[in-house]
Design brief:
Structural class: mainly alpha
Oligomer: single chain
Order of helices and strands: HHHHHH
Helix content: over 70%
Strand content: under 5%
Distance between the termini: 58 Å
Number of domains: 1
Number of strands: 0
Largest sheet: none
């Protein structure tokens, strides 16, 4: 996929859309030839038709071999169908590898996107805190607005420390886990 062209619409929304498209285009350009082949394979096997084709092939293989045995001919693959089992095992091995390879790449992209989300959320928190701070200053400076103490606005204009928030979440999560394990009956 070629890099996205700059948008004719210079709005902030248009710029954001262009940035996301450019990021996705960069991801597509960084895919190796082998990764692209694996993802193409996944797109072909990750459809219901592929499942039906496999099931149809298995039924056909068993039917042909049982039919040959019933007709008195030598079957291609006698029950318990060793060739069929070997083929199914090899297909399962390849499909498992393909899925794991694809999930690994998708996991890396998701991790990067989560990091970007965190950065954006921190920036939004800083901007919201600054807006609240400016509104509070405007309220205290304006002769037409009643000057009063607003504890909630005072608290909200402070930006949060991500490290502190992470440790509080971990503490509460550990406490909830300990409570849950304490409620579990012993065997």
């Amino acid at each position: 996929m070629p890099p996205s062209e700059p948008s004719a619409n210079p709005t902030i929304v248009g710029q954001n859309i262009d940035a996301v498209l450019a990021m996705n285009s960069a991801d597509d350009l960084n895919i190796t030839r082998h990764q692209r082949a694996v993802e193409k394979m996944v797109s072909r096997v990750a459809v219901p038709g592929f499942l039906f084709a496999i099931l149809g092939g298995i039924i056909l293989w068993i039917g042909i071999n049982v039919g040959m045995m019933a007709a008195g001919d030598r079957p291609l693959d006698r029950p318990p169908f060793g060739w069929l089992q070997t083929t199914a095992s090899l297909i399962a091995l390849v499909m498992t590898s393909v899925v794991v390879i694809t999930q690994n790449r998708q996991g890396k992209v998701a991790e990067r996107n989560a990091h970007i989300d965190l950065q954006v959320n921190l920036l939004v928190d800083q901007k919201a805190g600054k807006i609240i701070q400016l509104l509070e200053e405007m309220r205290t400076d304006s002769p037409t607005l009643r000057n009063r103490h607003d504890a909630e606005a005072q608290e909200l204009q402070e930006t949060f420390d991500p490290g502190h928030v992470a440790s509080v979440i971990a503490e509460k999560s550990n406490a909830m886990t300990a409570e849950t394990e304490g409620d579990t009956p012993e065997a």
